[in-house]
Structure formats: structure tokens, C-alpha cells
Amino acid sequence: MCAKSAKFLPGFLWVKNKRMTKQKPEPPLVMIEWVDSVRPTAPWQLIKDLEDPEPVKCFSVGWLISETRDVKALAPNIGSVADTFPQACGIIQITKRSIIRQVKLREVR
Predict the structure, then answer these.
(1) 38 and 50 Cβ atoms separated by less than 8 Å
(2) In angstroms, how far apart are the furthest CA atoms of the chain?
(3) Which of 9, 35, 65, 72 is deepest in the core (most CB within 10 A)?
(4) Residue among 70, 105, 71 nearest 91 (CA)
(5) CATH code matching the domain that covers 27-37+54-104, chosen among 1.10.12, 2.60.40, 2.30.30, 3.90.320
(6) Are 106 and 94 in contact (CB under 8 A)?
(7) Which helix (H) or strand (E) holds 64?
(8) In angstroms, what CA-CA distances link 22 with 14, 15, 36?
(9) 108 in helix, strand or coil?
(10) Ramachandran assignment for 45, one of left (phi > 0), alpha (psi -120 to 50 degrees), beta (any other)
(11) What's the pTM?
């Protein structure tokens, strides 16, 4: 498959395990709203003073580059798209159990 035949961004080919795979459909650009745990507190505190726990609401935007039964992977940054082996940076893996909603984004011209 030549780089010019890829549909997603010029020359973007899907690569897994260092072997080119068949061209997949263009990955959707999405926003995922999800919940996460709160980071641990550093100082000691009295349990009686603990506030009611609340999950943290998060929003992530990127191309949905991979999905399994349990996890979705978003890439907000993709580079070297004209190369045989493009790169991605900042990939986040979000467990499906924590997803509230997913919105497909579209380009506005």
C-alpha cells in the first residue's frame, strides 16, 4: 500500500506491531466525557473532617485510534503523517466503564 492511498490525513497508514495493516476507515474525531478518581491527598487528616467524595468530570478530545471491549484510545496529536510510520503523542486510554458520553466532532468550514 503506498502512502498516497491512505484516506486519513495524507499518507496516514495504520500500523500495529511494526507491520502495516489494511487501511482502516478514517478514525473519528471525538470528545469523550468521563469520570475519574480524585488524586490522593498528601497530608494526614481527621476522618471526621473528610468531605463527601465526588468523582472528577473530565473531557478529552482526539482521534479515536483504537478501541477494545474495555478501553478507548484517543490521540490528540498526530505527526509525521506523510511518512510510512506516522506518530502520535499524548494518547490517553479511557476505560469504557468511566465514559459518560461520546460526541463525534465535525469540521466546520
Answers:
(1) no
(2) 64
(3) 72
(4) 71
(5) 2.30.30
(6) no
(7) strand 56-67
(8) 7, 9, 35
(9) coil
(10) beta
(11) 0.71
Chain segment 6-59, per-residue pLDDT in tens: 344 444 445 455 454 555 567 899 999 999 998 888 889 999 998 888 899 999
Amino acid at 28: P
The b/e string for 36-62 (b: 16+ C-beta within 10 A; e otherwise) is eeeeeeeeeeeeeeeeeeeeeeeebeb
Residue for cell digits 469520570? Answer: 35
CA distance 32 to 11: 26
3-state SS assignment for residue 4: helix
